[in-house]
Design goal:
mainly beta; Thiol Ester Dehydrase, Chain A; 2 domains; six-stranded antiparallel β-sheet; 4 helices; 14 strands; disordered N terminus; binds zinc ion
């Protein structure tokens, strides 16, 4: 946890700002009401058409509403946005408190829904919402702040039908110039179980392409399954290292010192094997890069922990 912070921004419950924030947990957000319309077939049909969802469960005389429509039944429409008089103010108050402490930015981070009972045409929707939790101070890539989670309970004919949790981060943005110092490190690749083999290959200066065991389709970037046949089994083939510039952009602004001084060319490279990947085009002035230019793979030593595949243009 955050030790050694100023007393006004303690990370421990019961003290300072955090203690005040915690008092909002359980308070009504002020979002309470009755759905404008009963659950109805036209809204279900419009939703399914917009989503491209052709599940037969959402059609016909025994249709149910798609569970993910849960929140749609609570929305007040445009006119409701101008009438906030019925709000209790706890949510707005909490946000003012966070603003005052310097957490002036907000970003929605995720939502979770739980479905308790099916919704059917004719159901009458009522809802209410509480501030469920306020986290202690967390530091993310965006900045430091507090996660605020609200929970809306949605009832159908008085019976709990589902809950909708919505999480936001109220935060102090990282200084815009942070990371622009000399020596800023190039961002690390996000390595997960689906792409670890690719990065292992890069560490050994091999560019590995996945090939489906089922149908032989090559794929890049790495994915757990085959887009052509759905097969989950695969092996790798090593790229020969030759390719051409399929397309490219030249990066001028904003500057990212970790990527070196600009301008520089970023290419979409079509490998001789047929798959495409994005990487820097090196060895050629940025304004001499052209579509169709032959390139050859090489590995750039970025720092003592990271090598990256890049493509050298030119005549050799
Ligand atoms: Zn396949």
């Amino acid at each position: 946890m955050d030790e050694g912070l100023g007393s006004g921004l303690s990370g421990r419950p019961g003290e300072g700002l955090y203690g005040r924030l915690k008092t909002y947990e359980g308070k009504a957000t002020g979002s309470v009401g009755v759905g404008r319309d009963l659950v109805n077939e036209p809204m279900i049909r419009h939703w399914c058409e917009a989503m491209g969802d052709t599940n037969p469960a959402y059609r016909g005389p025994d249709a149910i509403a798609p569970p993910t429509m849960l929140q749609a039944w609570t929305m007040g429409g445009l006119s409701a946005q101008t009438d906030r008089a019925d709000r209790s103010g706890a949510f707005d108050e909490l946000f003012r408190l966070l603003d005052g402490a310097g957490f002036t930015s907000v970003v929605a981070t995720d939502c979770e829904q739980e479905y308790v009972r099916e919704l059917r045409p004719g159901d009458r929707i009522t809802y209410d919402a509480v501030i469920e939790t306020v986290s202690d101070r967390k530091t993310t890539k965006l900045g430091t702040g507090h996660f605020v989670t609200t929970r809306m309970d949605i009832h159908a004919n008085g019976e709990l039908a589902g809950t909708h949790r919505f999480r936001m981060l109220k935060y102090t943005p990282v200084e815009r110039n942070a990371g622009r110092d000399k020596g800023a490190r190039r961002p690390r690749p996000v390595v997960n179980r689906d792409n670890a083999g690719f990065w292992d290959g890069v560490a050994g200066h091999k560019l590995l392409i996945q090939q489906c065991d089922g149908c032989g389709e090559l794929r890049f970037p790495w994915l757990p399954g085959c887009n052509a046949c759905g097969g989950a089994e695969w092996h790798t083939v090593e790229a020969s290292g030759t390719g051409t510039v399929f397309s490219y952009v030249v990066m001028h602004h904003p500057p990212f010192p970790a990527f070196g001084p600009g301008p520089y060319a970023v290419g979409l490279i079509e490998l001789a094997e047929g798959v495409r990947m994005i990487s820097n085009v090196v060895g050629v002035p940025y304004d001499k890069v052209r579509i169709g230019m032959p390139v050859r793979l090489e590995f750039l030593r970025v720092d003592d922990e990271l090598d990256l595949p890049v493509f050298r243009g030119g005549d050799d």
